[in-house]
Amino acid sequence: xxxxxxxxxxxxxxxxxxxxxxxxxxxxxxxxxxxxxxxxxxxxxxxxxxxxxxxxxxxxxxxxxxxxxxxxxxxxxxxxxxxxxxxxxxxxxxxxxxxxxxxxxxxxxxxxxxxxxxxxxxxxxxxxxxxxxxxxxxxxxxxxxxxxxxxxxxxxxxxxxxxxxxxxxxxxxxxxxxxxxxxxxxxxxxxxxxxxxxxxxxxxxxxxxxxxxxxxxxxxxxxxxxxxxxxxxxxxxxxxxxxxxxxxxxxxxxxxxxxxxxxxxx
Length: 266
Fold this sequence. Notes:
alpha/beta; 6-stranded parallel β-sheet; 5-stranded parallel β-sheet; 9 helices; about 20% strand
């Protein structure tokens, strides 16, 4: 535990860690208040591309969790930064929701719809509750016409208060299957990009930061690859019975029931 006490920064996943759906995890408010009081730096990163970052800020604030909008990093922002750095501009057909569209337009990309999407420069795929045959058809034709295929994240499912629902990875898999083309880039965790943004913003080295998440395949694998002190919480998608077979990069440094237990360890 001495290693944990020495950490200067903490990166938290959101859904399944800080809250589940609309309900904060018990003890979350007190945990974050304590981290602020003790001078720890905090960032929130999420693979969810569906909402604008400001909506996460408002949600956390309404739950009584202190944060700033700039402390929130999501896969939509990561996609926009990736495209901006590599391609500068272009037309995007988006399989996704307002969060993805908003980040792309803020970074200077034109979002096209309908038949115009078939001639897009990029097909960007995130979670989309309105995903249907027509969107898949346009995306298929676009990538076959040479559009770059960018995936916001690989999560095939995500937790909600009433149970699991499909994630962006399910839509990505559908386009992969019918186009026989793999994404040029998968931005969200376990890809290092979001971790890298968070650590650089905190002005720390990865060895000075702990990463807290509820998913083995994204939060823990990604955090271990990046060099973070990884903490798995059992308040989200991973359950106690899933722990028996964890080895190598899938094994966290620490397992907690929830982030409520973190405070007493610091």
